[in-house]
Amino acid sequence: MKNRLLLNQVMKYTFFLLTLVALGVLAVLIVQVFTQGIGWLNWSFLTSKLSLNPERAGILGVIVGTVMLMIVVGPVTMVLGICTAIYLEEYAKKSRFQSFIQTNISNLAGVPSVIFGLLGLTVFSRMFGLGSSILAGGLTMSLLVLPIVVVASQEAIRSVPQFLREASYGMGATKWQTIRRIVLPAALPGILTGMILSLSRAIGETAPLVVLGIPVLIMPIPSSIMDDFTALPIQIYYWTLDAVLTPEYANLAAATIIVLLIVLFVMNSAAIFIRNKFQKRY
Known about the structure:
By secondary structure, the chain is mostly helical. The protein is built from eleven helices and no strands. Helix 5 packs across helix 6.
């Protein structure tokens, strides 16, 4: 008995120590980034265009490119993800084919993002001739986060109590009317939470954009989804690489990381707010 209690205490303090190590590493990283970049983060940095001169460089075009990228990713992912989840949960019969699709969707969530970049390069950039446009990048990112939205939407739909469906059928509603008026409104908080979290991942991914050949040279601010663009994570990546030759680029990368962290914090806070505010308990 004493040995079991001793082992329990050892494991308790081991896990606590490892948690402190992880938090310590995260704190060092955040302090380093803020120390290096906060002095370069000002209004001029946010509203200026890219420049080879670190003193004059800004990320206005990068922010616009990132926002337009999310404008493509959001609707495409939401439509495909929710429709797939509705089919699998409400219409598909339990069979080997349904199990095969479900297993592959779950496995796709663990595929390295660079593989999706190669897929986007082959299909969207070369086969469809979209090049390194915002549309090509957005469709590639949609493929990357689609499994997350499908799985989150399935879980949300599955959590809707069965008695709500049965009550709707008892009132004479069809299956589609039940899905549209009962299931989807009840599952919407979970679906939106998964959607926001998937966008948070898409906005921070670099590898697929690097594979697509997204440029970071000085370029006009994009005005349509067919224009070339650059985004926050890829600009951070290249400024970090170029810091070997121009040390000031490391400060620009740190300032851009702060902007990206703020965006991610806001998006994750929105997801938590939606989940807590609109989640219903039955």
